[in-house]
Design goal:
The structure is a homodimer of 412-residue chains. In chain A, helix 6 runs parallel beside helix 8. The two termini of chain A are 27 Å apart. Chain A has 412 residues and is an alpha/beta fold. In chain A, the strands form five sheets. An eight-stranded mixed β-sheet of chain A has the order 3-6-2-1-9-11-12-10, sandwiched between helices. In chain A, strands 13-18-20-19 form a four-stranded antiparallel β-sheet, sandwiched between helices. In chain A, strands 15-16-14-17 form a four-stranded antiparallel β-sheet, covered by helices on one side. Chain A folds into two domains: 172 residues, Carbamate kinase, CATH 3.40.1160; 167 residues, VC0802-like (2-Layer Sandwich), CATH 3.30.2130. Chain A has 13 helices and 20 strands. At the A-B interface, helix 1, helix 2 and helix 3 of A face helix 1, helix 2 and helix 3 of B.
């Protein structure tokens, strides 16, 4: 029998009424003869309520105990969900992470799944039960409770789908799928019917919030087909799958943006070996993720070094860099929080020159200055002044014809 | 190092402020050099909130899933409590039932503890940590979550104390200890400084709600000294311990009452072998606990049979008995919900005649009719009309001089 893993987010299970609505969808799949595993998040709002409680007892709550607390959120949802199913005469069982045997490392609050022993899940499926698994959480090798961080339920679902070699993993959320651009700022954006893992990885890391990035990595590695769709409609969403010939016909699949970063520039840095290490090592130690790094060609042995960091880490970054800049005799330390990163993503770029130049000329035509550029095989990102973000996204969407499913921009 | 197990009820941990207050008490014991294990209930009100959620999704929530849901109550408390301790620089760790390895049978909602593997608790104690254990819950042999029923945290605490051979088990509650009678109806009642396990067992089963009865049975079986006291004062409470010579000097330790039962009478039952089985077997099968059973001396081969059952089971009982009464040719089936059971308890009764007659004459002096009597070695219970309950308790309290710590009524 085909096996389907479904994941429902917090808004889909926000109250008993929605739980009933979602449960009916699950039962439909089960009645059609599928083996069903359902992964649930905490009810919308519950996570914030629990964090609030923690803050009342401790300013900086201990990480291990915070995970014990947070894990109750999904525990409540899976219990209520299973209860509802059973009250309708449908065989079901809830499983918490220690019961579903989802093992992680001990990085509380941002744990990584290292393995799943599927014996118990398979045993329950063999009894024809719908298996309801608490998302977002795991246990380490001695049974401590861990959580996977924001969006962790996506990862739970994909990891279980991979471990069970599921036929499909459906991620239900409050949007209808993956769009060519954020519909809130780009009215002509269009839902994609298919997209490759690599494109989704780029989109997720560039700011599209529809899927948690680790879950996409997992799906790619274990070749789990993902279907991202809405729990509020019956319409199909977006299939995230491995790349095929057709996809390469599409130059650009989507335009995305992010306003999460700040830009730091150190001017007139001596261009000698070991300088970069001196600058970036303290940041690595402080767990600050440096994104784009640009070093201009050096003139007379001096160069300007520019990089971006998350806005929340800017203050810390400047504190760390200040003494280093002085020590190496740099001229100035500048920073800018009013930036945005606008990116285009598409596997078709690989075999097509001219994509980058079309992007640059599109921005230039609107007098949008490009502050920094970075590229990968399938994406080009430009840092611009943040006030131009919406304009840039709309213009790029138009320039690459993303509103049309054209021969050169066809997805299925 | 001496080992103390402390249990705090829901009102003692009802909010972050009270958690801090209780935590300071725990830390005091720890600083004095004790190894500390703390068992916590859910915050007051939380259990009702969770039951409310369950009722919203299912009229009769599935027992297994209800336990998964209810167990989050204690999980929240232990996480917050440990967080608070750690934020104060005190080493602590929370343990849920699957981590503390508290094993029960699979009777969801009323599970019995069958064993505790103390390895993990001892490991944490060896690290000088305060161990915070979620009360009320356990796991069965395959890791399903179970709960022990109302008051189950008392049982958790005593079971852990027994398994660890603790020096003392302190049960913190919102009353100051065990009283000679309920202070709300008997102003002259007095807090007992000591009481025997057997007396406490009788009091608990007769309606005194200060301790869950199973926990007292556990404590007696494993000889765990219990100290019942209030978390809101520093005053000592009541020590529940094994019987010693001094205790036998006391005729009566306490007067208690219960209004939970209803009385059923079947008149003119043929007094032939097998009749009792015919009547009571259907009730046993329906899990109805029959308390007092009185059979009058038979006259001309006919007798009246009277027994009590919990009020909540009366309707069911009558449904079950009706056809049996008809079948055996009994005359009438009568019932009465307006009864109360008033009892006196004391190990000193064993060696003293005259206690029963003093009880009967005390009630008679107030014109209180005794409907049914039952006795054990250390208690006498009389069923009376419930409107006389408070009067009876006060008069008996006076008649046995319970307000005084007299030579013949001394406790320490």
């Amino acid at each position: 029998m085909p096996l389907i893993v479904q994941k429902y987010g917090g808004t889909s299970v926000a109250n008993p009424e929605r739980i009933a609505n979602v449960a009916n969808r699950v039962v439909k799949g089960w009645r059609e003869g599928h083996r069903m595993v359902v992964v649930l998040s905490a009810m919308a709002g519950e996570t914030d309520r629990l964090i609030g409680l923690a803050r009342e007892v401790a300013e900086e709550p201990d990480a291990r105990e915070l995970d014990v607390l947070m894990a109750t959120g999904e525990q409540v949802t899976v219990a209520l969900f299973s209860m509802f199913l059973k009250s309708q005469g449908i065989p079901a069982t809830s499983l918490l992470s220690h019961q579903a045997r989802i093992y992680t490392n001990r990085a509380y609050g941002r744990a990584r799944i290292i393995g799943i022993d599927t014996a118990r899940i398979l045993e329950e499926l063999k009894k024809n039960r719908i298996v309801i698994v608490a998302g977002f959480q795991g246990v380490d090798e001695v049974g401590n409770i861990t959580t996977l961080g924001r969006g962790g339920s996506d990862t739970t679902a994909v990891a279980i789908a991979a471990a069970l070699k599921a036929d499909l993993c459906e991620i239900y959320t409050d949007v209808e799928g993956v769009y060519t651009a954020d519909p809130r700022i780009c009215p002509r954006s269009r839902k994609l019917s298919r997209i490759s893992y690599d494109e989704m990885l780029e989109l997720a890391s560039l700011g599209a919030k529809v899927l948690e990035i680790r879950s996409v990595g997992f799906a790619k590695r274990y070749n789990v087909p993902l279907h991202v769709r809405s729990s509020f409609t019956e319409r199909p969403g977006t299939l995230v799958t491995k790349e095929d010939k057709d996809m390469e016909d599409i130059l650009v699949s989507g335009v995305t943006y992010s306003k999460n970063d700040a830009r730091v520039t150190i001017t007139r840095v001596p261009d000698v070996p070991g300088i970069a290490a001196k600058i970036f090592n303290p940041m690595v130690e402080a767990n600050i993720v440096v994104d784009m790094i640009i070093q201009n060609t050096s003139i007379e042995g001096l160069t300007d070094l520019t990089f971006t960091v998350p806005k929340g880490d800017l203050k810390k970054t400047l504190e760390l860099i200040q003494p280093v800049a002085r020590e190496i005799g740099a001229d100035k330390l500048l920073s800018d929080e009013h930036i945005a990163k606008v990116s285009i993503v598409g596997v078709g770029m690989r075999n097509n020159a001219g994509v980058a130049s079309r992007m640059f000329s599109t921005l230039a035509a609107q007098n949008i200055n490009i502050l920094t550029i970075s590229t990968s095989e399938i994406k080009i990102s430009c840092v611009i002044e943040d006030k131009y973000t919406e304009l840039a996204v709309r213009e790029l969407h138009d320039a690459f014809g993303l509103e049309h499913v054209r021969p050169r921009n066809r997805l299925n």
